[in-house]
Amino acid sequence: MKERIKSLTLALLVVCSLVQSYFLIYQLPGSDPVVKTESDYVRTENMGTTVEADKLLFPAQIAIHLGKERHTVFYPDSTFYNLIYSRLKGRQFDGFQRNSIKNIDWADIRSNHIGIELQFGGGVPVALLQKVMQIKPDPLFEGENVNRLLIYNAGPQDQVRVFFFSSQGDVVYEATKADLTVQDVQQQVDFGKDWVPYTLENGYYVPEQSIDIVETGLNIDVYTIEQMQRSLFFDPSITRYIREKDGSEIYTDSKRSLQVKQDRNWINYTDPAAPSAGENSPSKNVLSAVDFVNQHGGWNGKYRLSRSDGMDEDRHRVAFQQYFGTGQFGAFPVIDLSTFHYGMITLEMRQGTITGYERSLIYGSGGTWKKEVVSLPGGKELREQIKRLKAESGIANLYPAYLPTQVRGGILLKPMWIAELENGATRVLN
């Protein structure tokens, strides 16, 4: 009898020991285990916020076509921009038909018809655009990236026509069943009647008057290298440190590497051995990129999906551009410069898995030290500046933006006109 009790007691002690070991290793049910695989990352505290993908999907600008070669432009977060975009997000688009872009005179439509044009810049996958707009599933259309949406009243037959432009530049998709009336379009166009007049010139818009933007000085802080290491490496304690001849620093665990340019507070993280997910869907690539940023640095401010394109058959690039704005003036993109990287988050991936990640370590810490309304020139003065660029290349786009400069007080965001050239270059107009 005593031997049996001893055996039972011993067995109970062994079980208790196993249970205790389990909790020591895995903590409590529902919490993160201490034992992790190399594909896991540690979320760093006190870094940026997380966002849902739909918050990053909005037009770079909305052009209003008033007919008789009259136009105006609304920029993100301005009152009429928000009103028009929120209304269109509630409308339904269905019955897609594919057409060649060459079959219609688009310059004539923009100049002589009443309409609204949402410009998305580098292109948005339709599967993602469905998250913010009521676009019915359509196998003909779902695999596309679109860079603009044109809605206009088609003359006296009381008809609204809706076209989604492929970012490839060769085809458009007409939504033949759109939940819009001529009166709907007219009401939204009327918002632009008393706004700054713009002229359409070879695909871009030139204001005939100066426009006001707030020059702003931001208070800033900087993520530490230790924070980024803890966020991006499985075990930061085993990383090696290498100093390059150009002054940049590299931290590596033999699989991943984190390059830091100290003079610019900029990081370039690469993980070439990351296991691929086996699928190269543009929409899933963007969602993967958003999730990655959410976990590794987060977002400090307002960002827009500005680019989503294939680099080759297996690789894809996704870029998010920071926007900044105050009140009634709207929000404008912050330009990333070769001499001062700030305002852009770029990711590269292979078949859905992140292999590259670039971003600034600088972020706005809250509050400003300067706010001053400045006027960007329009009309003749702006055209004179544009004329100087035409010898270099044709102009593809023209828009106001913030030029960032790091100064003693923090970051100075100075409003400037930006010209994107047809040869791919970007120029700042003084």
TrEMBL record:
Question: Looking at the record's lineage, which domain of life comes first?
Answer: Bacteria
User: Which residue range or ranges hold the Regulatory protein YycH domain?
Assistant: 3-423
InterPro entries membership: YycH (IPR009996), YycH/YycI_2 (IPR042274)
Q: What's the protein name? A: YycH family regulatory protein
Which organism does this sequence originate in? Paenibacillus puldeungensis
